[in-house]
Amino acid sequence: MSDALFDDEQLEAGRLLFARPTVFMMGAVAMDGLPPDDLPEVAFAGRSNVGKSSLINAIVGQNHLARASNEPGRTRELNFFVTDDKLRLVDLPGYGWARAAKTEVKKFQNLGRDYLRGRPALKRVYLLIDSRHGLKTVDNEPMDALDKAAVSYQIVLTKADKMKPAEVEAVAQKTLKAIAKRPAAFPRVLATSSEKGVGIPDLRAEIMTVCGVRP
User: Fold this and answer.
1) SS3 breakdown of the chain: % helix, strand, coil, rounded to 5?
2) Which residue of 30, 52, 114, 178 has the smallest Cβ count within 10 Å?
3) Alpha-carbon distance 103 to 1, whole Å?
4) Single pTM value for the model
5) Is 45 strand, coil or helix?
């Protein structure tokens, strides 16, 4: 992490972009059911219960766009949301906690992997990590897959409000060191809190920049 990732103009542009309507577009359960490859996309991945739905809702300024579930691992499809007809946010199935038959778990996790490997419109994956726990062994598999597919990904720490700023910074620096030799990892870690709004303006500006769009 560092101070002043983006200037005021970029932060305001990101705010304006996501102040425009973001709507649920569709859920896809197979690769042949994906929407046309005609808008830039960013995807969100992470362990179940990492706060993925809450983060997406915070980015777009809506409380109930992405639905959080009390049961871990309920996202069984690729959920597409479109912002101002300019870009799409993609909610990937969570990993690590899914309470489903192993064949079903494998099916929707494979769908996520197939999407990551075969989606030209995908500009970046945001891999969400609970700041209280940092990187875990279970996170190595998605990072390995992203490295192998040569898909740019960036670590986003969630629930940063649950820790002291110095502790969050220490986790961010440790994470940066851990991903330093990973070829597809973007060398910047963002710390966020969906509840307090920490880091959300920077993440909006990051998405806007990587997708090459303006409000």
Assistant:
1) 40, 20, 40
2) 30
3) 39
4) 0.91
5) strand
